[in-house]
Amino acid sequence: MQTDFTERVLRGVYSAALYLLLPITLYHLIWRGFRQRAYFQRWDERYASYADGAAQAPLWLHAVSVGEVNLAAPLVAQLRAQRPDLQLVVTTITPTGSARARALWGDSVAHVYLPYDLPGAVGRFLTHFRPALALIVETELWPNLLFACRDRNIPTHILNARLSARSLRGYRVLGPLIRRALSSVALVAAQSNDDARRFLELGALPERVQVTGNLKFDMAPVQTCQVETAFAAALGAARPVWIAASTHEEEEAAVLEAHLTLLRSHPDALLLWAPRHPERFRAVAQRASDIGLVVATRSQQQWPQTSTGVFVIDTLGELLNFYACAQVAFVGGSLQDIGGHNLLEPAATGTAILTGPHLHNFADIARRLREAQAMRMVTDAASLARALCELFDDADVRQALAQHAAQLLQEGRGALARTLTLIAPKLPPAAGI
């Protein structure tokens, strides 16, 4: 009984704090809305207020944003092939994740934003969709959500579970509460031994933690031939092409400085630029234009032309296509202390990989790529420019990087099959059984 009382006190204090902070959630939506207008829409879903009646979806999958949605796509495809009878609801947090989910699955799956971790909102969400199994991709540890699933006998599986040392320190602020919430999780399918160890330190039960590998290695085969052909035809002649992908605001100056340096030795070089957040699309185009570069955007001009110096990819869901059009890729979120983004996507398209040093969100993948001599690390604009020049001057080195990365990607496959094996016995039974 002492444990139950302690849990009630912890949950009560946590929930009271969230309710006191409720006005800040409104401020956050408004603030984000001025930068990305989609945040002004669908507020009712953020608080689990639904206009229509209950919509049963026995299988619920949560994927925070674009990266997690893309990661989950092969898993969802396999689950739907195995159990076409199961209705699925997918939740995201960001509008870009929502747009990607709709692009992948349209109306064939239900989709809403995950509500804030308020007891009332979480309860309304679970009552509305009545899931029988919860699949959470990577790291989303919301105490009220996990407790509510436990209290309603909804098994919760954390798939491709990732927990960096930094995240572990952050969650420990709510240590006793998180420990109790995490102990209710039915399965933690960890990416690596390090991730598994950290989940155990945080409170996961040892018998419920398994290392299944990283689902990112099991990404669907990339078909980009048509895109590459159209891109080359529009360009008119072979040029050095590099892509700055998933960049953040504090990295933008370094990208431009590196490109200007590259132009001194490779005056026909083309920069493809895909900022991480849509609110930066217009800003990076303007920054490049302000320093005299000829800028075009994907939304206004389908392909770069002979005169284009910077081509801004201001659309969603096309990054893999444009990785395939570049010989070298710089993956952002790594010069700025963000933690990095998916390094295996350029590997899947045969593109040589450059990255900054801040890779704590992809520590295991980064280590394996380094050990396989499948990527190069840069630290600032000058070293990025040097690496670009070296790789464009030496095709053999560039191709070796790409080949090593592609081989590592192939060797790392298998997490999808292992994850499906663990999930299959837990799927809700077919109707009538």
- Average pLDDT, rounded to a whole number, is 94
Could you tell me how far the N terminus lies from the C terminus, measured between alpha carbons in angstroms?
38 Å
Computed Rg: 23 Å
Please identify the structural class as seen in this structure: alpha/beta
The strand line-up of the biggest sheet is: 3-2-1-4-5-6-7
Low-pLDDT residue spans: none
- How many strands appear in the DSSP assignment? 14
Gross morphology: globular
User: In DSSP terms, counting alpha (H) and pi (I) runs of 4 or more, how many helices?
Assistant: 19
- Beta-strand content: 5-15%
Largest sheet: 7 strands, parallel
Please bin the fraction of helical residues: 40-55%
List the helices and strands and how they pair.
Elements: H1 2-20, H2 22-35, H3 43-46, E1 59-62, H4 66-82, E2 88-92, H5 95-105, E3 110-113, H6 119-129, E4 133-137, H7 143-151, E5 156-161, H8 165-171, H9 175-182, E6 187-190, H10 193-202, E7 209-211, H11 225-235, E8 241-247, H12 252-265, E9 270-275, H13 281-290, E10 295-297, E11 310-312, H14 319-325, E12 328-331, H15 344-348, E13 352-355, H16 363-371, E14 376-377, H17 381-393, H18 395-411, H19 415-423
Parallel strand pairs: 1-2, 1-4, 2-3, 4-5, 5-6, 6-7, 8-9, 8-12, 9-11, 10-11, 12-13, 13-14
Helix pairs in contact: 4-5, 6-7, 7-9, 11-14, 12-17
